[in-house]
Amino acid sequence: MPELPEVETVCRGLAPHLEGRRLVRVEQRRPNLRTPFPPRFCERLTGRVVTSLRRRAKYILMHLDDGGVLIAHLGMSGRMIIAPERPDAFDKHDHVVFETDAGTIVTFNDARRFGLMDLTVADALGDHPMLRNLGPEPLGNEFSGPDLARRLAGKITPIKAALLDQSIVAGLGNIYVSEALYRSGILPTRTAASLTAGEVDRLAGAVREVLERAIAAGGSSLRDYRQASGELGYFQHQFAVYDREGEGCPDCDCDRARTGGVQRIVQSGRSTFFCAARQR
């Protein structure tokens, strides 16, 4: 599933083509994605000017000139594809088509249909069911070691599970949590409440660093993810531990024959990768 860096990359890729442009035509090519489209979906979007594109957690927020906001989630395989003109034919997985007054075509393609789109108004955005319980943005000013320590206090869940809780930190996913725990030297199985203030400070810094590096690299192109431009991201080539079971740890002198190198365990049904020699 596209994680925060992928969604941020998509937003940045879409912005030059959509911000300040009028949506002259919007097509909904099926009745639903993961959930049904809102009533009068195309009618409410057609003719509106896109004032800004923002990201909240893993959601794309398209702000409109009438105060409306389109909320979009890419799901498992959703992609936003930009084309300079209307194609002769659309793919069977092209479910929503936006056409701007510049003639640009932005198509939402989602083979597995786990994505979703909804409409709300800016004044009620914070109360939307998908957004109202989200924690702070890990790249925002609110996110810090002390704030994270306060949110983790008393939690007996494993630190990895705690970081995946969207009410603690918004937008973190399986890939980048594994990477951040590795960078901060913290074992993913430790209880959240067991971390010291110094460890939480290191962890908060590692979260920010890993996400910023991934965004700079264009996101990670695992399976179906693509940038809005259609190009593959390449942060997966910089993974220290994720999906590297049995390989040597890139940043320490662990004895692979003794420790097995990067190890994989399953936590809450998801793969976790770590180095037992580096992470404590």
Taken together, the total number of domains comes to: 2
Could you tell me the radius of gyration in angstroms?
20 Å
Label the overall shape. Answer: elongated
Low-confidence stretches: none
**Class computed from helices, strands and strand pairing:** alpha+beta
Beta-sheet strand percentage? 15-25%
CATH architecture of the largest domain: Alpha-Beta Barrel
CATH superfamily of the largest domain: MutM-like, N-terminal
Please write the string of helix (H) and strand (E) elements.
HEHEEEEEEEHHHHHEE
Strand order across the largest sheet: 1-6-7-5
Main beta-sheet annotation: 4 strands, antiparallel
Question: Which labels suit this protein?
Answer:
single chain, 280 residues, alpha+beta, Helicase, Ruva Protein, domain 3, 2 domains, 4-stranded antiparallel sheet, 7 helices, 10 strands, Formamidopyrimidine-DNA glycosylase, 8-oxo-7,8-dihydroguanine DNA N-glycosylase activity, multifunctional enzyme, FPG_Glyclase, FPG_N
